[in-house]
Amino acid sequence: MTGKPVEKPGDAAPIGVVGAGWVGLVTAACFAELGHSVVARDVVQEKVDALNRGEVTIHEPGLAELLSSNADRLEFTTDMDRLLDHARLLFVCVDTPPTHSGDADLSRVRAVVDELAGSPDHVLVMKSTVPAGTGETIMAELPGSGYVSCPEFLKEGSAVEDFMHPDRVVIGVAPGREADGDAVAELYAPLGGEMVRTDVTSAEMVKLASNAYLATRISFINEIANVCEEVGADVSEVARGMGLDDRIGPQFLRPGIGFGGSCFPKDVSALKLLAGNSGYHFQLLNAVIEVNELQKRRVVGKLVEHIGPLAGKRIALLGLAFKPDTDDMREASSLVLSARLAAEGAEVVAFDPVAMDAARELLPGVEMARSALEALEGADGAVLVTEWPEFRELDWTGAAGVMNRPLLIDGRNYLDPDELAAAGFTWDGVGRAEVRPD
Ligand code: UDX
After folding, report:
1. How far apart are CA 295 and CA 342, in angstroms?
2. Which residues are catalytic?
3. CA of 322 to the centre of ligand 1 (A)
4. pLDDT of residue 2
5. Strand pairing category for 123-126 and 146-149
6. What is the pLDDT of residue 6?
7. Residue of the CA atom closest to atom 2 of ligand 1
8. HSE on the CB side for 199, CA within 13 Å?
9. 228-278 pLDDT, tens per residue?
């Protein structure tokens, strides 16, 4: 074990970050931008070497610029002792992916706890999403060390912006350890978000409940969209009318072909299991998950309605990433959709502006096109899966000309139906009336 970290009076606080993945890198870069001296530790030597050479492998707007302009305040290492020497506050940003049972895999968190064992001078600041109750367990194992739960709420594609302008900063500490919470609060104070000071387990629950609630809103609006299709209403108008109620608000009411990504599916399942493991049956979340699964598959039925059985038909997927501005394919709706299409005997061709490399390995049976137009060539139907802005700029009249049948199932209600109809397309979205060519 190393000695007490040295803090020079007058300096911005030295900060340690454990795990240089997506959350860790954003956290390290943003704290460096705020003037702090940051040492980030990762167990993967090649990643550390690349970062020390100034190479960034993650696609996140603004991150590369921050890492480069603050290079003199950032150091990457594999050496935990170096981190312990540098800083008292250690921000834990390691992955907690789902296990086969859907519980959170805490092995990386456990490894950090083991490395810290015995140090009374350090404070673990948990950014990683962990099941409620984890902090209490860790604190019992690390008597003397500090522990603060400070969950991250960053969105992929706007993580730097979200870090710099938080809606709120949640800080959970054990009774008697308020000074540790104050130290973390001081770091976030310049960013202006509302501070929520609470106990550790409640802080953990804020994160899980927030993500589960947002996922619930999406499944809810998806079901409303499905009902709109039955009764002839337009879900965009319905969502607009709902969102103007202050108690509801306009965000996260976009229907589509289901939510994906590294957080929502994992956190909804983790909260459901956490409740189940504690003896409570969280019925609502079962429905949220089921609706999301069915929503990814509804597109197949829509294609069949328009063009009949899919065996031998060529279907183009526009977009593969779970949302725009990222190459992240984790739990992307395109994975389920392309597998369902293949099971129906369709030939699937796809294009994504950024996620092609990430997708190629995951979708070996899918033909990868070099452009959206190439994907549409000879297709019997197309599905817009991810709302990439470049799809709005596409020459849709030209696209109609190269397709076998100009049909666009708009899985995100992203394109203008009238424009598509004028270009010669049949447009069919989610929860809205279909529009046929003029
Ligand atoms: C989410 C949370 O927003 C963030 O606070 C948390 O820290 C991590 O999880 P992220 O996974 O980056 O962030 O994506 P987000 O922009 O929230 O979208 C998640 C999924 O929901 C995407 O697949 C998106 O397409 C879908 N979505 C979102 C909808 O289908 N409709 C909506 O109205 C909003």
Report:
1. 17
2. 263
3. 9
4. 42
5. parallel
6. 43
7. 155
8. 9
9. 999 999 999 999 999 999 999 999 999 999 999 989 999 999 999 999 999
Per-residue pLDDT band for 9 (boundaries 50, 70, 90) equals very low
Cβ atoms of 135 and 201 within 8 Å: the answer is yes
The pTM score is 0.93
Q: Give, using CA atoms, the residue closest to atom 9 of ligand 1.
A: 263
Rounded distance from Cα 259 to ligand 1 centre (Å): 7
- Tokens 């002839």 sit at which residue? 232
**Which residues have a Cβ under 8 Å from the Cβ of 183 and sit 6 or more positions away?**
13, 88, 89, 123
- Average confidence score pLDDT of the chain: 94
Q: What is the pLDDT of residue 325?
A: 86
Q: How far is the CA of 155 from the centre of ligand 1 (A)?
A: 7
Distances (CA, A) of 392 to 87, 401, 410: 48, 17, 12
Residue 84 to residues 21, 190, 246, Cα–Cα distance (Å): 19, 25, 47
Cα–Cα distance measured from residue 27 to residue 25, given in angstroms and rounded to the nearest whole number: 5
368, β-bridge pairs: 350
Q: Please tell me the distance between residue 326's alpha carbon and the centre of ligand 1 in angstroms.
A: 12
**Rounded-to-integer distance, Cα 56 and Cα 403, Å:** 39
Phi, psi of 194, rounded to the nearest 5 degrees: -65, 135
Residue 11: predicted pLDDT = 54
Nearest ligand 1 atom to alpha carbon 162: 5
Q: Which domains does the chain have, with CATH numbers?
A: 15-198 (3.40.50.720), 201-438 (3.40.50.720)
| Ligand 1 pocket residues where CB is under 6 Å | 152-156, 211, 214, 218, 252-254, 256, 259-261, 263-264, 322-323
* Stated length of the chain: 438
